[in-house]
Amino acid sequence: MTRTGLLFDERFLLHTTGFNHPEVPERLEAVYRGVAGLLPKLTTIRAHRPELKWIEAVHSPKYIWRLEEACLLGLSEFDSPDNQMCKDTFETALFAVGGIIATVKLVMECEIDNAFCAVRPPGHHAEVNRALGFCYFNNVAIAARYLQTEWGIQRVGIIDFDVHHGNGTQHIFEDNPAIFYYSIHEHPSFSYPGTGREFEKGIGPGYGYTLNSPVMPYTGDREYKELLEKDLFPAFEGFKPEVILVSAGFDAHTDDNMSSIKLSTDGFSWMMEKIVEMADRYSRGKIVSILEGGYSLRRLPELIKNHVEILLRK
């Protein structure tokens, strides 16, 4: 059986978002219910505070200071009405980053083969200088920079299947040919944040290393399979990533009211199975999957359970 890590820490529940906000601590409680039966087979990982240099590798020091100050002042909103926060938001976001870095380190040291990071807050909308879309620190981008800087990885593949385009991740790496960013998401004409069109392919030396597959509302499994086979699989065959990072959002599910996409539970499983196959082919199985969206508290347990079982190769 594959050695799979699970990053989970009760401190991720401390970030609260106020009344009627979809990104709530109960999301992680639902995740935990899903993986509870798998815990004997998993290597559990706790979070810790990271060195600030890893966050500063992606975000400006001024932005980090602004976020810390906002929490110290007890503000309830930061940069965007979507970004509701509390006094513990800064610390929670720090611990999420620290836990992810610790997880990546375990994978690179071959202590584990792959991992799922059940973190809050999510990250892929966060820009260098701005919080957006429930996100404060761009977790997957920080992990990618850590792999480049600390481990000398020359080709990092990022796959983002959250239903919303990861504008922050794309913008951070759009001029970087060492990071291939692929996203499949609801078409930006119909969905937040309005980025991620097919013609967005990177800039300068990074042109061709960004690839977006927007899908129209009310489509599902068939369209996702067709686009992955047409876009992602050939792209990674050419790029051959040494490590694969996954921005794992589950809000494209047909029962999730954050989008009009109708991806089934089996569709999510098929997608992750193909990602694992690519990791086996190109990166010696090295995958770190990081939770982004997914807001159906009823569906999250089964979706996460299936996701982690696929990493376990059960």
Care to describe what's here?
This protein has helices at 26-35, 52-56, 61-72, 89-108, 139-151, 167-173, 221-239, 265-282, 300-312; strands at 4-7, 42-45, 77-78, 80-84, 114-117, 156-160, 179-186, 210-215, 243-248, 287-291. With 314 residues, the chain is of the alpha/beta class. It has a single domain, classed as 3-Layer(aba) Sandwich (Arginase, Chain A). It is globular, with a radius of gyration of 18 Å. The model has no long low-confidence stretch (mean pLDDT 97).
Major sheet: arrangement of strands: 2-1-5-10-9-6-7-8
Label the CATH architecture: 3-Layer(aba) Sandwich
Percent helix range: 25-40%
The low-pLDDT segments are none
- Give me the CATH superfamily: Histone deacetylase domain
Head-to-tail CA distance between termini: 7 Å
Oligomer category: single chain
Number of helices: 9
Overall mean pLDDT score? 97
Order of helices and strands: EHEHHEEHEHEHEEHEHEH
CATH-derived topology? Arginase, Chain A
Shape: globular
Strand content: 15-25%
Secondary structure category: alpha/beta
Number of domains: 1
CATH class: Alpha Beta
Q: What characterizes the major β-sheet?
A: 8 strands, parallel
Compute the gyration radius: what is it? 18 Å
Total number of strands: 10
